[in-house]
Structure formats: C-alpha cells, structure tokens
Amino acid sequence: MSITAAQVNELRKATGAGLMDCKKALTETGGDHEQAIDYLRKKGLAAASKKAGRAATEGLVGSYIHAGGKIGVLVEVNCETDFVAKNENFQAFVKDVAMHIAAAGPQFVRREEVTSDVLEREKEIYRAKARETGKPENIIEKIIEGQVNKFFADICLMEQAYVKDPDKTIQTYLNETIATIGENISIRRFARFVLGEGLAKKESDFAAEVAATAGL
User: How many C-beta atoms surround the C-beta of residue 100 within 10 A?
Assistant: First the structure.
C-alpha cells in the first residue's frame, strides 16, 4: 500500500513522532491512522504516550450553552501547569470538547468507565440478535466484539468521532493538542444538562405540544 505524505504529516501532528517513524507505523498498519497511533505508543515513540504518565492537576472547567439555554455542558480538562491552562490553544480545546459533548451526548469519558451491568446488557442483546440468524457460537462472539466496539464509539467521549471533524476521534484531537502544547492533557469528567430531562410533563403541556406539531 502506498503511504502518502499527507498521511505521514497527519500522524506526525497527532503524535509528535518523527517522520520516518510515522511512515513505518502507517506501513505496518496498512495506512490505518488509529492503529498507527497505537503502534507508535506501544513503541514509545508517540509524544502523547510519553507525556501520559505526568501529573496533570491544573487546567480548566469549561462550559457551553446551546439551543437557547436548553442544553448545557460543564467539562473538566486537566493539564500540567497553570501557564498552559491560560494558553489559547488549550482553552480552545476545552471549548471544543464542551461543544462536542453538547452535540454528541456521550455517557462516559472512556470505555473503562462503562459499568459491567450496562456492558453485559448490551452483549446479551447482541447475542440474542445474532443467534436468531443461526450463526455458530464462535462467529457470534466475534460479532459481539465488533458490536461492543461500536457501542463504545457511540457512548464514550474519547472514542466518538469529533463533530467538527468526523475523520478524527476526540482521542486523536487530544493527541494533536498534546503534541502542539507539549504537556500532558486529560479530560477528567463532564456533566451534560438537558432542560426538562427526566421531568414528567403535565397532560395539558403534552397536548399543547401535539397540537403545535400537528399545526392546530
């Protein structure tokens, strides 16, 4: 497979690794960007990986309000120093992440936070659907594995496609920001609020909404 200069430059920007290392990583992984990042991290060549062990106790709590005040997000993003917390690139990253959370509605930051009961319930649904097709058990388990990875990509912030650039994940965007800024950065936690979520509306309010939708 031919690896283009654009692919190499994109990987270098995301990881901070050398050009030749990036080209080799892409060659070894068939040009897959995400797998190439993992390859570099395993080899200890990705800047983001090298910085991951550093303590990140400074940072910002960012906020974003959308849809006329109907959706609100708070997100805590940590960095190593107060100096970087005041950096425009870091602040822009925090804002972008808050906007993404408002739009994409993740439930967890990363897959390790997904509780076992939630995961097992999903697996049972996938397993039941697969068995209806009559496939053998060994194939079913492979299907479940693929479905689980898609499930994580839907609900885990770090694995979601970035809404402003769907060709990259939030993890990729984070790696790029680490490479640019030169410090470890970590998205620690977030809260997303939707106006009226979980509240039972009065029957009269519901009827009014139905009438408005119907044009009455």
Answer: 23
Q: How many CA atoms does the CB half-sphere of 163 hold within 13 Å?
A: 14
The class (CATH top level) of 58-111+156-194 is alpha beta
Number of helices (H) and strands (E) in the chain: give both, helices first.
10, 5
Question: Would you put residue 154 in left (φ > 0), alpha (ψ -120 to 50) or beta?
Answer: alpha
Contacts of 191 (CB under 8 A, 6+ apart): 73, 74, 75
Fold classification of 5-51 (topology level) = Helicase, Ruva Protein; domain 3 (1.10.8)
What are the boundaries of each domain within the chain?
A: 5-51, 58-111+156-194, 115-153
Q: Considering only CA atoms, give the Rg of the chain.
A: 21
Helix orientation angle between 137-155 and 116-132, rounded to the nearest 10 degrees: 130
Beta strands in the chain (DSSP E): 58-66, 71-79, 161-162, 165-169, 186-194
What is the per-residue pLDDT across 16-69, written as a single tens digit (0 to 9) for each? 777 788 888 999 999 998 888 888 877 666 666 656 666 678 999 999 998 789
pLDDT in tens, 197-212: 878 765 556 455 545 5
State how far the Cα of 169 lies from the Cα of 77, in Å rounded to an integer: 17
| Contact between residue 190 and residue 109 where contact means Cβ atoms under 8 Å apart | yes
